[in-house]
Design brief:
Blueprint: H1 8-16, E1 20-28, E2 31-39, E3 45-52, E4 55-56, E5 65-66, H2 67-81, E6 88-95, E7 101-108, E8 114-115, H3 116-121, H4 124-127, H5 130-149, E9 152-153, E10 162-167, E11 174-179, E12 186-187, H6 191-204, H7 210-223
Antiparallel strand pairs: 1-2, 2-3, 3-7, 4-5, 6-7, 8-10, 9-12, 10-11
């Protein structure tokens, strides 16, 4: 998925496509980053994160590395851990004529998913019974636990980055949860610290009410253990 000599044409193919901006380009990290909605030849909706000069620095990369590569690392690891995330179609980086990094991360749209804050705001609490809500919170806890047991910290765990999909109706309805926007993900030595930071962030930046939060913590304890101690 990385762009090399044999993939330069694929990089140019996605770079030259234009679609609706779902996240307008913004200036940060010394460069520019934005997200467009595209579609492939079969009509499958795609999301393309396009960046120019948008880098991060670390001990391993003191001179800077395109941030999409950190997101690619997280997406690839999450899939192996069984954490539901968008499927990667293409990722590549190149230097432009001014020797700035150009970077692309193209992924499939999560068909039928909506962010959990919008889901609740659209009347989910009134529309669905408690059993279905429990399924949502249980699947969210399962995905978070798998992420944290893998020593990954999301780093931007807001309600708008937690997506929900409901399939079916009545008692047979099922729920799936997926995590998005992994640009700030990083590995932590302590999985408990990763868990504590993410859960505290989600508590502050989501529309879960107190009863829903306590239910999420209950399911998380079942999956993970005592990492949520002190976050009641």
């Amino acid at each position: 998925m990385m762009a090399g000599r044999g993939q330069s044409s694929q990089f140019d193919y996605y770079w030259d496509q234009q679609g609706e901006w779902v996240e307008e380009p913004n200036q940060r990290r010394g460069g520019e980053s934005g997200v467009q909605r595209l579609s492939d030849e079969s009509g499958q909706m795609l999301y393309a994160k396009r960046q120019v000069g948008h880098i991060y620095r670390s001990i391993l990369h003191p001179f800077g590395r395109p941030t999409v590569l950190r997101e690619l690392d997280a997406l690839s690891s999450f899939e192996q851990l069984g954490v539901r995330v968008p499927h990667i179609v293409f990722c590549g980086v190149e230097r432009d004529a001014q020797h700035q990094w150009r970077a692309l991360l193209v992924s499939k749209a999560l068909d039928g998913f909506v962010d959990i804050d919008s889901w609740y705001a659209d009347g989910a609490r009134e529309r669905y019974d408690q059993a279905l809500h429990d399924k949502v919170l249980e699947d969210l806890a399962r995905n978070l636990s798998r992420m944290h047991r893998g020593h990954w910290q999301h780093g931007c765990l807001y309600g708008k980055h937690v997506f929900v999909k409901i399939t079916g109706e009545g008692p047979s309805a099922s729920a799936q949860v997926a995590l998005l926007d992994l640009e700030k993900c990083r590995r932590r030595i302590s999985c408990r610290r990763a868990a504590g930071n993410d859960l505290s962030q989600l508590r502050r930046h989501s529309s879960l009410n107190e009863a829903e939060w306590q239910k999420l913590l209950y399911f998380y304890r079942v999956e993970f253990g005592s990492a949520v101690k002190g976050l009641e």
